[in-house]
């Protein structure tokens, strides 16, 4: 029977002293060992008979380290069953095996394997025993290995991954064990998997109440009394609150029970997007003087509210969630998770002023949530892209009935301690919005979420946000989510009086980085009037923010509405980064998206600077496009600017005029006849120059420039440096149409892991040591080895002066 008791901090002063004693003597996690299990797997692409058998000879299989995505290593082909919508890369069946030993000393302990995510339909065996099947490619799951292990001997884990039946996704999924794997060893009495839940029910600047629930599992026959102790540490490692609770319990073999502890933290440092202060809660199970288990839970102390009129407040301060939607792929790295690659994406978005992430349309890698906690992003954590009705033939609708409860529970249990998460989404554009079955399913899903967490509101991302929507009618949703329909925002309360609003998905602006068509001042809706006067040259889309799909908007259109009304609590733009698959407005030969504010390689498109000028306090002056045109062509020049009253443009020293944003303008524009030379823009405030920018007509490609985002790397076999490759003329100007083929060489303690250039149409492999520039730029990503040392990277191209760069790893 569950035992639920509450002990207030400070009441058990004797225990408090004991707890402090344990902490001053030992800080490392005790009683539990969590080891990364990524290295040294064998892999076979294709079906294998008896692949699970311990004695199978796998010595001919490829050796690799996880995380691994085999699709990204394949060839882009129209015929691949994923279709261009799914990224046009191969799927198939893959087998992974790992042989490992477990120390004899672990006998009597409990051993688990944790998978953060396997795409998809995974079966796992240990020593020939089937442990389970999980169809959902995004969910994290654990199996207990204990009864089947050879302690002190050899063991074999075998994993079959089946991504052969396609299409099963509307975007690129990747294939394989694409997230981390962990081996966890605990005592038989231990804190359960995802066994803590921390909330902050009362927060003020003077004091915060922190409530912790701890679920203890005893799968042995432990019958002596033990104590649960918990301490809150601040970011400097100092204990700021301690609570001890004695549990006197005998004969509790094979039971699980839950206990609750409240703490007080005086003058807490609050978690915010500007200052994401993190505490941690360390919980121990102690018997006598032995720490049987120790478990760390992240803690951010904050309070937030969605209000029907005032919109969103965080720690009592009104603000908007300025978010983006992202899919899980990492461009040329595929879906294989890499923390540095995720961190870089978030850094690029943060510098734009973005403060929110929607994990469209599935549970993310846990590391993304850790980074959002640390870096100050508000997360909308999403569960499903469909329920019982399909979007594509073989998607999750096949498994929804049997698996939705388990998958949704696991997602909430895994994620609910992250302070960054402030919204749960139980679905994106669920086709059953239109059907009465939603009246049954939405409340059921809401009940699952609310049974595990009532501290965050629940939403669905609705593409039919009108009154006919059965999900909204069901009353199960706390926040009404609109996908698109930006011109209905202002009338929201006429439709839904007293309800709370969130723009779960907006925009879907279409752009190819570095490609421009004139004139730029009329909005083009694909496909209706897209061809006139656009040329569709090379499956490009003009990067003036003026092309949108019928359901979406340009970036400026939505932001203008969004910024007007307080009750519009926030938005998630489709999308922050380009992603593989869904190449709207085209299809093959295009194979990746045009929706990103940042391209697939991580190069910002121009509209990035519109957001930066609006969403940050930075002083911005960004002028575009380039200045290389046919003589006499009429060219539009746009400027995004901030912290200035006006911008003056000069061509070869002659003023083209002063422009000022008026009304709700977000940019200014000049139209002028091209003549080669220098364009110069000067922004001024109160008559004083704030910033100047120059663009020169570039000459022929002459040399390569390499710029590494980081030169000092960690020798951990995972760290990355993103090296920007620029094609310059002899004077150092980027050549805007350069497409030179650049060859890369790397020596030393790193490998070239992938290359890209952001071109959605390229079919070149990401895994080769060369890349053509696209609009003057390419990207090379190098990954360290586990040995420290220097890394020499060179880039050469026919007819160009080569470039070299030296990095180091420690
Ligand atoms: C939305 C959908 C997204 C993506 C987007 C493209 O309707 O929710 O997943 O497909 O359209 O504009």
From TrEMBL:
Superkingdom to which the source organism belongs: Bacteria
Every DUF4982 domain range: 632-690
Glycosyl hydrolases family 2 sugar binding domain segment(s): 92-186
GO biological process, one term: carbohydrate metabolic process
One GO molecular-function entry: hydrolase activity, hydrolyzing O-glycosyl compounds
Keywords, ordered alphabetically: Glycosidase, Hydrolase
Residues in Glycoside hydrolase family 2 immunoglobulin-like beta-sandwich domain copies: 197-302
Pfam families per UniProt: DUF4982 (PF16355), Glyco_hydro2_C5 (PF18565), Glyco_hydro_2 (PF00703), Glyco_hydro_2_C (PF02836), Glyco_hydro_2_N (PF02837)
Glycoside hydrolase family domain mapped to chain residues: 704-805
Gene3D superfamilies assigned: Galactose-binding domain-like, Glycosidases, Immunoglobulins
Keyword Hydrolase included in the entry's annotation: yes
UniProt similarity note: Belongs to the glycosyl hydrolase 2 family.
PANTHER family xref list: BETA-GALACTOSIDASE, BETA-MANNOSIDASE
Protein name (record): Beta-galactosidase
Source species: Mucilaginibacter pineti
């Amino acid at each position: 029977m569950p035992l639920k008791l509450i002990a207030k901090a400070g009441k058990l002063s004797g225990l408090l002293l004991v707890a402090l004693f344990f902490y001053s003597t030992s800080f490392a996690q005790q009683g539990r060992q969590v080891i990364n299990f990524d290295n040294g797997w064998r892999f076979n692409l294709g079906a294998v008979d008896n692949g699970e058998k311990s004695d199978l000879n796998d010595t001919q299989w490829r050796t690799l380290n996880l995380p691994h995505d085999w699709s990204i290593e394949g060839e882009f082909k129209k015929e691949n069953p994923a279709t261009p919508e799914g990224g046009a890369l191969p799927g198939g069946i893959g087998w992974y095996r790992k042989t490992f030993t477990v120390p004899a000393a672990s006998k009597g302990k409990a051993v688990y394997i944790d998978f953060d995510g396997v795409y998809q339909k995974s079966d796992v065996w240990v020593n020939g025993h089937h442990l389970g099947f999980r169809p959902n490619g995004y969910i994290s799951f654990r199996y207990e290995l204990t009864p089947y292990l050879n302690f002190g001997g050899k063991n074999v884990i075998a994993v079959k991954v089946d991504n052969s039946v396609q299409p099963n996704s509307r975007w690129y999924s990747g294939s394989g064990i694409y997230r981390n794997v962990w081996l966890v060893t605990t005592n038989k009495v231990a804190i359960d998997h995802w066994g803590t839940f921390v909330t902050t029910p009362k927060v003020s600047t003077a004091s915060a109440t922190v409530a912790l629930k701890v679920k203890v599992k005893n799968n042995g026959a432990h019958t002596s009394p033990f104590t649960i102790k918990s301490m809150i540490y601040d970011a400097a490692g100092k204990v700021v609150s301690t609570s001890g609770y004695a549990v006197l319990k005998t004969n509790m073999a094979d039971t699980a029970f839950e206990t609750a502890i409240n703490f007080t933290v005086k003058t807490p440092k609050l978690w915010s997007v500007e200052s994401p202060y993190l505490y941690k809660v360390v919980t121990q199970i102690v018997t006598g003087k032995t720490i049987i288990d120790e478990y760390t839970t992240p803690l951010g102390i904050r309070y937030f509210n969605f209000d029907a009129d005032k919109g969103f407040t965080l720690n009592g301060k009104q603000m908007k969630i300025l978010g983006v939607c992202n899919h899980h792929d990492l461009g040329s790295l595929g879906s294989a998770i890499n923390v540095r690659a995720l961190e870089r994406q978030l850094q690029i978005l943060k510098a734009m002023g973005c403060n929110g992430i929607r994990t469209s349309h599935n549970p993310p890698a846990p590391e993304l949530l850790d980074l959002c906690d640390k870096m100050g992003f508000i997360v909308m954590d999403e569960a499903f892209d469909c329920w019982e009705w399909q979007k594509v033939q073989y998607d999750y609708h096949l498994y929804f009935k049997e698996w939705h409860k388990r998958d949704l529970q696991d997602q909430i249990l895994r994620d609910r301690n992250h302070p960054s998460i402030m919204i749960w989404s139980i679905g994106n554009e669920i086709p059953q919005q239109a059907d009465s079955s939603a009246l049954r399913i939405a409340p059921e899903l809401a009940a699952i979420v609310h049974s595990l967490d009532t501290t965050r509101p629940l939403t669905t991302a609705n593409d039919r946000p009108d009154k006919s929507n059965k999900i909204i009618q069901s009353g199960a949703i706390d926040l009404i989510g609109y996908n698109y329909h930006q011109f209905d925002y202002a009338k929201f309360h006429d439709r839904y009086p007293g309800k709370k609003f969130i723009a779960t998905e907006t925009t879907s602006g279409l752009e190819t980085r570095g490609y421009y068509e004139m004139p730029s001042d009329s909005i083009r809706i694909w496909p209706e009037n897209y061809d006139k006067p656009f040329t569709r040259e090379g499956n490009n889309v003009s990067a003036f923010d003026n092309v949108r799909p019928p359901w979406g908007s340009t970036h400026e259109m939505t932001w203008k509405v969004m910024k007007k009304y307080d009750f519009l609590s926030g938005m998630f733009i489709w999308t922050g980064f380009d992603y593989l698959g869904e190449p709207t407005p085209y299809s093959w030969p295009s194979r990746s998206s045009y929706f990103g504010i940042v391209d697939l390689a991580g190069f910002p498109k121009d509209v990035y600077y519109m957001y930066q000028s609006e969403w940050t306090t930075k002083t911005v002056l960004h002028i575009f496009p380039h200045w290389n045109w046919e003589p006499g062509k009429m060219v539009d020049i746009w400027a995004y600017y901030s912290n200035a009253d006006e911008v003056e443009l000069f061509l070869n020293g002659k003023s083209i005029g002063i422009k000022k944003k008026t009304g709700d303008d977000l940019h200014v524009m000049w139209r002028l006849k091209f003549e080669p030379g220098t364009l110069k823009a000067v922004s001024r405030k109160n008559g004083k120059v704030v910033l100047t920018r120059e663009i020169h007509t570039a000459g022929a490609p002459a040399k390569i420039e390499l710029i590494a985002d980081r030169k000092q790397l960690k020798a951990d076999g995972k760290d990355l440096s993103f090296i920007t490759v620029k094609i310059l003329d002899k004077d150092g100007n980027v050549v805007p149409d350069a497409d030179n083929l650049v060859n890369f060489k790397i020596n030393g303690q790193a490998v070239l892991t992938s290359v890209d250039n952001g071109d959605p149409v390229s079919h070149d492999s990401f895994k080769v040591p060369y890349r053509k520039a696209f609009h003057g730029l390419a990207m090379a990503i190098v990954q360290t080895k586990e040995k420290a040392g220097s890394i020499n990277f060179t880039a050469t191209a026919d007819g160009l002066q080569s470039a070299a760069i030296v990095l180091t790893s420690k």
